[in-house]
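Problem: given the chain below (352 residues), write out its structure.
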Amino acid sequence: MSQGDELLARLAERPFDRALRLVFADWLLDQGDPRGEVIALGAKGELSLTQRRRVQRLTEQHAAAWLGPLVTVADVSACRWEGGFLELFAVGAPPAPAWEAVAGDPRLATVRALQFSVLGEPRPAVAFLGHPVLRNVESLQLGAELLEAIGRQPLAFAPRRLALLSWGTFDRELRELAVAQSMKSASRLDLITSEFINRIVTTDVRTAVLGFRAALQHFDEIELVARYGVTEGAAAWLESGHESRAAELPRLTRWGTVFRDVRYTLTRVGQRFPRLELDLSGPDGSSVGLDVKVGDAASLLVLLKGLALTCVVIRLPPGARLKRQERDVLRTAVRRLGTVSTFQIEDTPALP
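Solution.
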């Protein structure tokens, strides 16, 4: 075993040991590997803008090499790194034999999130998911085929966040979830749909969720992530979260949607959901401008009059500020609801 392999094996046992990470960084620097610099910078904590940009540039340039054998099963562009270590592992569409070569790879020990988007034959992935090197995984994204293949088999981890992918309205996915014992640890459920959401589709998804509510009792957050659709569809989903959820899903405290790179989240207070938070940060790499998000958010807000909201909070991307016109657009939309007594942009009251 080479020194590099030995260090990786030790890191698989203690993946978040700062001292061991720095030893690995020194060894990488001696080999001329820029990953050593990225790990050393990551261990410092707060970085300057110049340092953050350098880390991002080096990671983008060398991510495929840093994955080692994992590159054969990875969707490299969708993987995410933190301080030079793999944090989110996104799976591509590998052939079945590739799984045997990567099961238990020590580079997986730091992974906290796993994403499966498209799979050929899902069963080879089940043994991969059972290896203890994945014990730190907290978030799992998968479709019905892999969920069915897992069935009642134990995993190496207990996911706290579960994301289901669907080309439809989640009937099959929720049916498989109902019998997947290894998913009972999850408290958050994301429903990622490729359907074009409108009021009809939203009603179908809501019907599917309520049809399997007995299997969803352990979730306290449910979110619909829509890639395509109309504003009325997203508004209808939020409205549906306001109707009898307290009785049907008693643990549910948050109900929301992600639509056009804006996250809308209703929060429960007592037996109602009167608080709405709009997060305009968007996902990493979003190309949607803040001005467009403000316009979309204002358009959706005016459709929520029936919710009797009492509190609306706007969250902005780090370092962003709203123009006066953008603030006025949001303020006008909130006023039209007629029930909001608290309106904040970050922590600043925005109603006169």
